[in-house]
Structure formats: structure tokens, C-alpha cells
Amino acid sequence: MKFITDRVVTFSLAVLFSCTLASTVLAEKTTEIYKWVDKDGRVHYAARPGDATAKKMHLGSRTFHKTNKDIEAEKEAKKKNDERAKLCQDSKNTLAKYKKAPFLNRYDDERKQKVRLTEAETKEAFLQAEKDISYWCNPPEKAEDSKDKKK
């Protein structure tokens, strides 16, 4: 009787182990994980995309890895962000120079000399500098959101 009980227990354990192993392998193959960054800069991972920016992650040997396409996209995004940051700083520097200057000039091609801006032109230059700062220093998503809020 003990022999039969031992065989039943051994068989049960073998079946349980096989089922556990099969479910783990199947779960790894069929699970889709999405990654996204929210507007506060926090990274999220979930089985369903949280927003339109969510990207499907690839599972490989139980660790996340990036594809070459993902790496290239990140490099391109970093390049654009760096360029935006430089243009943002340039815009801030321009406005700071405008504020320090007693008056603003422009170059007149016909006269081939500098001409002092009128009061209206000076106001327009300041407004344009502030618009440039607003455009370059805010992420594109936030700029679109602010347009929607104005409407």
C-alpha cells in the first residue's frame, strides 16, 4: 500500500511541476508589457497601455531589452530634446539682452546701417522673444495641451 501511495505522490508532484513550468513558459511568451512616462516624469509598466505614448516592451529571458529601433528612436529623441534645450536657453539669453539694452536696433539693408526700433517694434520684439521661450522651453505635449485649454 505504501508503494502505491508513494507512486501517486510522485506522479502528482511531477504533474504539478510540469503544469507550473508550462504555465510559466506560456505566460512569458504571451504577456505583453507596456512602458510609458506620465506628465510628472514617472515611468510606468503595465499589461495595458496607460496612454498614447505607451510602448510595447519585448520580453527576453525574463529581462526587458531594447530593440535597435528603440535605441535609435531614443537617440533621436535625445538629440531633439538637446536641440530644444539649446534653443530654449538661446531664447532666454535673447530676452535677457533685450531687457538690459537701453534700446533695440535692426539692420537696414537699404541704408546699410543700424536703425533704432520704434516703440511698437520694440514691444513686438519682446513679445516674440517671450513666445520663443514659451515654445522652446515647454515640451511639445504641454504646448499642445495649453492650446487646447485656451480654446
What does this structure look like?
- This protein has 151 residues and is α+β, with helices and mostly antiparallel strands.
- The chain folds into two domains: 28-65, no CATH class; 72-150.
- The protein contains four helices and six strands.
- A four-stranded antiparallel β-sheet has the order 2-1-3-4, with no helix packed on it.
- Helix 2 runs antiparallel to helix 3 (119-137).
- The radius of gyration is 30 Å and the shape is rod-shaped.
Layout of SSEs?
Blueprint: H1 2-30, E1 33-37, E2 43-46, E3 55-60, E4 63-65, H2 68-100, E5 105-108, E6 113-116, H3 119-137, H4 140-150
Antiparallel strand pairs: 1-2, 1-3, 3-4, 5-6
Helix pairs in contact: 2-3
Structural descriptors:
alpha+beta, 151 residues, two-stranded antiparallel ribbon, 4 helices, 2 domains, four-stranded antiparallel sheet
The main pleated sheet reads as: 4 strands, antiparallel
Radius of gyration, CA atoms, in whole angstroms: 30 Å
Number of domains: 2
Helix content: 55-70%
Short description:
With 151 residues, the protein is α+β, with helices and mostly antiparallel strands.
